[in-house]
C-alpha cells in the first residue's frame, strides 16, 4: 500500500488520502446548498445560537485572545468570536466553504482571517501563528481519520497555557443516527457503532443534513467514528492536560420532532430517557 504525503500534510496511506480528497470535494459540493439553506439561515440566525450557554462559561473572557476555529465550514459559528474581543482565524479543507465564510463575515461586518487547508496540515499552513484557544466541533471529528495526528496539530497550534475546546456530537447520538433514517422512524434505536474500530463508513448520498436541492456531483463522503475515550487519550498522548468534560442532552436543532426548545437549544421531552447528545471537552497545553 502506498503512502501519500500530498495536501493532507501527513503520510497517510493512499486509500485514506483519497478519502480525505473525496471529503474535500463533497464539502465543496455541499457548500452552496448549505449556504442557501433554512437550516443555517445565514442572513437571519444569530451566530451565538449555535453555542450552548456553558460554552461561553468554559471559554471565559475572549478579549485579546488569539483563537483558531478548525474545520469551520461556512463560518456560521466563527463569526460569534470577534465581537467578544478575539482575534480569529478560521480553517477549512473546502475552498468553497472558505469563500462562503469570507462572504458571510463581510456581510456581517466581522473580521476573520480564513485559510483553506486540511486540518492535518494546519500548523504548517499557519506557520509561526500560535493561539490561546483552538475551537472545534459539532460534526468535525468524524472527518478525522487519525486522532493522533490531529492532536499533534492541536498541541503545536497552542501556546503554553492555551486551551483546546471541543464541542462535539456525542458517540451515542452518532450511534442513534444524527439524521433520520430513510424510513423516517424516530424510535430511539442504536443504528450505528458507538465505539470505533471498524474503519471508515462510506456514504453515497444526494442529500446532506440540511434542506435544499440534491447534490449532483461528489456525493461520496467518508466518516470515522471516535469514542470519547479515543479523543481523551489522543490529547493526553500529545501532551495536553484534560481539565473539563461535560455531557448535555441538548442539541442546537430538533433532531427528533418531539424535541422542545430549552434556552435556545432543544431537548427530548420529559418522558423520554435523559441521554447525552453533545459533549464538551477542554484541555490545556502545560
What does this structure look like?
With 286 residues, the protein is an alpha/beta fold. It has one domain: Vaccinia Virus protein VP39 (Rossmann fold). The protein contains 7 helices and 13 strands. A 7-stranded mixed beta sheet has the order 5-4-3-6-7-13-10, with helices on both faces. Strand 6, helix 5 and strand 7 form a beta-alpha-beta unit. Helix 1 runs parallel beside helix 3 and helix 5 packs across helix 7. The N and C termini lie far apart (38 Å). The relative contact order is 0.16. The N terminus is likely disordered.
How far apart, in Å, are the first and last alpha carbons? 38 Å
> Which structural class do you get from the secondary structure elements?
alpha/beta
Q: Count structural domains.
A: 1
CATH fold-level label? Rossmann fold
Residue runs with pLDDT of under 50 for 5 or more positions: 1-7
How would you write the strand order of the largest sheet? 5-4-3-6-7-13-10
Mean pLDDT: 94
Q: Can you tell me the CATH architecture?
A: 3-Layer(aba) Sandwich
Indicate the topology:
Layout: E1 3-4, E2 12-13, H1 14-35, H2 53-59, E3 66-70, E4 87-92, H3 95-108, E5 113-116, H4 122-126, E6 131-137, H5 147-157, E7 158-169, H6 171-176, E8 201-204, E9 220-223, H7 228-237, E10 241-248, E11 260-262, E12 265-267, E13 278-284
Parallel strand pairs: 3-4, 3-6, 4-5, 6-7
Antiparallel strand pairs: 1-2, 7-13, 8-9, 10-13, 11-12
Helix pairs in contact: 1-3, 5-7
Key words describing this protein structure:
286 residues; alpha/beta; Rossmann fold; seven-stranded mixed sheet; two-stranded antiparallel ribbon; globular
Amino acid at each position: 500500500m502506498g503512502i501519500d504525503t500530498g495536501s493532507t500534510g501527513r503520510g497517510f496511506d493512499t486509500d485514506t488520502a483519497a478519502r480525505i480528497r473525496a471529503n474535500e470535494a463533497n464539502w465543496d459540493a455541499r457548500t452552496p446548498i448549505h449556504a442557501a439553506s433554512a437550516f443555517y439561515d445565514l442572513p437571519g440566525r444569530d451566530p451565538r445560537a449555535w453555542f450552548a450557554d456553558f460554552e461561553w462559561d468554559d471559554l471565559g473572557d475572549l478579549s485579546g485572545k488569539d483563537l483558531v476555529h478548525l474545520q469551520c465550514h461556512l463560518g456560521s459559528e466563527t463569526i460569534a468570536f470577534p465581537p467578544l474581543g478575539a482575534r480569529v482565524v478560521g480553517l477549512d479543507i473546502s475552498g468553497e466553504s472558505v469563500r462562503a465564510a469570507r462572504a458571510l463575515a463581510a456581510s456581517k461586518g466581522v473580521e476573520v482571517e480564513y485559510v483553506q487547508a486540511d486540518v492535518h496540515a494546519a500548523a504548517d499552513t499557519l506557520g509561526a501563528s500560535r493561539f490561546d484557544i483552538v475551537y472545534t466541533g459539532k460534526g468535525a471529528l468524524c472527518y478525522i481519520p487519525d486522532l493522533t495526528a490531529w492532536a499533534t496539530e492541536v498541541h503545536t497550534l497552542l501556546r503554553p497555557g492555551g486551551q483546546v475546546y471541543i464541542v462535539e456530537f456525542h458517540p451515542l447520538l452518532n450511534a442513534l443516527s444524527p439524521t433520520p433514517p430513510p424510513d423516517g422512524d424516530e424510535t430511539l434505536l442504536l443504528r450505528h457503532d458507538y465505539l470505533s474500530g471498524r474503519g471508515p463508513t462510506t456514504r453515497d448520498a444526494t442529500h446532506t443534513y440540511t434542506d435544499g436541492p440534491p447534490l449532483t456531483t461528489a456525493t461520496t463522503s467518508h466518516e470515522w467514528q471516535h469514542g470519547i475515550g479515543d479523543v481523551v487519550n489522543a490529547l493526553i498522548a500529545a501532551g495536553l492536560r484534560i481539565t473539563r468534560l461535560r455531557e448535555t442532552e441538548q442539541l442546537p436543532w430538533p433532531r427528533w420532532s418531539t424535541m422542545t426548545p430549552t434556552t435556545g437549544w432543544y431537548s427530548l421531552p420529559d418522558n423520554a430517557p435523559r441521554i447525552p447528545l453533545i459533549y464538551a471537552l477542554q484541555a490545556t497545553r502545560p
